[in-house]
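Structure, all two chains, one model.
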Amino acid sequence: MQRYILRRLLQGALLLFIVALVVFTLARVSGNPIDLLVREDATAEDRAHLQKALGLDRPMHEQLYIFLTGAVRGDLGQSIRYRRSAAEVFFERLPNTLKLLPLAMAGALAIAIPLGVLAAVYRGTLVDRLAGGLAVLGIATPQFWLGIVLIYVFSIQLGVLPSARMGGPSHYVLPAVTLGVFLLAGMMRLVRSSLLEVMGSEFVKLARLKGLSQTIVIWKHCLRNALIPVVTLFGVYFALLVTGAIVTETVFAWPGVGRLTYEAVIFRDYPLLQAVILLKAVIVLSVNLVVDILYAYLDPRVRYA
Amino acid sequence: MNIRIFLNLMLGGFLAVGGAPAAHAADKDTLVIALDTLGAQVMDPIMDTRAPHAHYHAPVWDSLVGFDLEKGGIGPGVAERWEVAADGKSWTFYLRKGLRFHNGDPVTARDVKFSLERKMSPESIASGAAALRRAVDRIEVVDDLTVRVHTKGVIPYFAASLSRAVFMEGSVMPKKYIETVGAKGFREKPIGSGPWKFVRSVPGDRIEYEAVDYPHWRGTPQFKRLTLLLVPEQSTRLAMVRTGEATIGSIGPEAIKEARVGGMKIVSVPGTMQAVYQFWGLYRPEAKGSPLADVRVREALSLAIDRQQIVDHVMGKQAQWPMPFATFRYSSDMSIPRWDDWARTALRYDPARARQLLAEAGHGGGFKLTFWNTALPGTPFMVQIGEAVAGFWEKIGVKVEVKTTEWGAFDPMTRGEQKALVGTASMYRTAGRPEPAPRYIGSFNSKGVQHLLGDPQNCPAICQDADRAYEAVVSERDDAKRAAAANRMIELVAKSWIAVPIIEGMGYWAVNPKGVGFFKPIPGRHEFGDVTERMPRPEQRPWP
C-alpha cells in the first residue's frame, strides 16, 4: 500500500512538472504584458524600464528556472497586475468560488435525481421525453445568455433578486441557478441511464419477486446502486467548476477564481496565470489522489494492477 | 410573506455565509459607481500604469496640477499657480494654504518633493515615471508652500505632465506617514489629501471610501460614502444602474440606446479620444510604388468617409466631428477656431471629389489596400468604426483587405522596423490630452515610436520638416510664438493625410437619475475620480 501511495505521489509530482512547463510556455505565446501596461506613445526606454521592473527582461530559460525553483519552495511569483504574491491573490479568491459551488451542486442534485428517476421509470413516455428535452436545453443553453436572462427577469422586471455581486443570501440565487442548470442536465441524464441499467439487474428482479413495492425497489435498491457513477461525476464537476466557473463569475461580477483566471489571461499576467493553473492542478490532483488511495484501500486489485 | 424575505430566509438556511439580507438598491448616502475595470487595484500611485487609476486613486490623492473643470485641460491643483523661469529650465509651484492629509498632517512642499521623487524611483512602474526621470534634474524645497523643479532642458509641457488631465504623475503623497508606516503599510492603509478617505479594498470586487468631514477645495462631497464596484460585464452594469444597485455605470456607445429605453440618463464626456486611421512606412523604399505614396490618393480616402454617418449610426450620435490629429477643442497652444473650420471643410464627405482625385492619380480603377482593423484597450468600438471606414473605401473602388487583429497581436508590429505594416493602413487612437506636441513626437518625429513620416535612415523632406516643426514648438518659451509653431506642425501633418482623424470619441456613462443629481464631467477626462466630489444628490439638482 505504501509503495502504491508513493508511486501515485511521484506520478502526481511529474504531472505537476509537466503542467508547469506547458503553462509557462503557453502563457508567453499569448503576447507581452508590457503592451497592455504602457501607454500608446511609450518610448523604448519606458518599455525597457517596466520590463526590468517586472523581471521580464531576463532570458526565457532564466525565467523558467526562477519559476520552477520558486514553485518548489511554494513561491509562485508576483502578479504583474496586482504587484502581490500570485498565490496569495488565488487563495484570497478561492473561498468566494467555494461558497457558490455547494449551493449550485446541491440544487442541481435535488432536481436531477428525482427527474432522472422519473425519466427512467417512465421510459419512452412523455415524462421521459420532457426530461430529455430539459437536459438538452440545459446543456445547450449558453450560461452567459441564461445569466443575463435571469438578471432581466428576476432583478429588472420582478425586482426580487439582486443583479450581481457577492452579498447576502439572495445574491447567491441567480449565479447558483446559472451554474446549476448546466450541472443538472448532465446529472439527470446520468441518473436515468444508470438507473435503467440497474433496473435490469438480477437483484432487482429478485426484489420484485419478493413482492416489494415499486417505490421501495426504485428508491431504496436501484437508486443506491445507480448513484455510484453520479457521485463520481459529482466529484469531477466539482473540480471542473472550481476551475471553470468563468462565465458565471464574469456575468455576476463574482470575485472568484474563475474570473481571476479570465483576468490573468486578458491582462497577460504570466505569474498569476501560472499560479492559478498550477494551484488548480494541485487541487484536482489532490482530489484524484485521495480517491485513488481510497479505491486502493477498498479494492486490493487496484494496488496490484 | 414578502417573496424577498422568503428567499432570504430559505437561502439563509442553506448558506454558511454571513451578511445581512440584500438591500438591492444602494442606500441614499452612498454613491455607487460600477466600472468595467479597477486596473491593478493597488492603493499606491506609483504602482498602476494605466488610466483606471484615475477612477480609484483620484478620490484619495490630490494632484499637484489640476483641471480646468469647464473647458478641460489643465488648471489649478494642489498648486494654486506656477511659473516657469526665464531660461525655461525650472518650474516654481505655489501650493494652496491650509491643505491637510487625512491624518491631519499639513500638505507641504516637502511632500511634493517626496512624491515626485517617489514617482521617479526605480520601484515605480507609474505610466509617466520614465518621462519624469528624463525630465527632472532636481527638486528644491523653497519654503513650506513653494517647490521648484529643475528640469534637464526646456520642457514647455512639464506642468501638464503633473496633472491628472494627462496622467497621474502629480499625485501628492504624505512623506511623514509613508516614512513611518513603510510602503506596505501605506498600501494597506493609504491616506492622501483628497475629498474621499480610503476605507477598504476588496480585491476583484470593490473599493470603498468615505467623505472627509471638512470643506475640501475640490468640492465637499454631498454623499457620505463612495463605492467603486468592479463589474466586468456591461449588461450587468446596466442592470445594476437600472435597479439602483449602482448609481452610475460605465458603458460603450452600443449600449446607449438600451440605457435610454431603461430610463437611465446618459452622460457623455467630450474629447476623451480620437479614432484615426494611419498609413505605415510610406517613406520606405519598398513602399515607393504604392498608390498610397501619392498624397492625392490619401486625401481621396479621407473624402470617401462619411463621418456624420459614423457619428450617427456607429456611435449612436454620441461622438463629435474631429479636430486635426490629436487635437481637441480644449487643446492649448493652437488656434481652435482655425482648426475647427479646417476640419469641417477638409474632413467633409465628398465621394465625387474622392473619385476624381483617384483618377488624377492614375488609380481610377481602384487599387488593393491592406487595412489592419484593431481596437486599443478601453475602446472596443474602434473595430466597428474600422468596418465602416473600409465600407466607405470600397464604395470608391478601393479593394480593401480587412485584417481584424487583436491589439496584443497588432501592437508589437508597430515597433522597430514595422516590416509587416509597410504600405498598409490601420486603425489607431489618440487619447485626450491638452497639448498636441507630445503626441506628435511619438507619431511623426523620425526618432519617435511610430515614425510615420520617416526614420533616421530614411528621412524625406516632410520628415525633416516635421522634426524641425516639433523642435520649434518645444524650444519656444513665448506662448504666442509657440502656438504659431504648433499650428505649423499641425498643418504639416494635416496636409500629409498620413494620420487622419475619423471621429472624436467620448466617454459614456449610464446614470440612475434617482440616485444622483445632474452633474457635468470634465471634458477630456473619461474617469470620474475628480468628479464624484461635485456630484449632487438628486433633490439638489434634478436632471433636465
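The first helix of chain A runs from residue 2 to 29.
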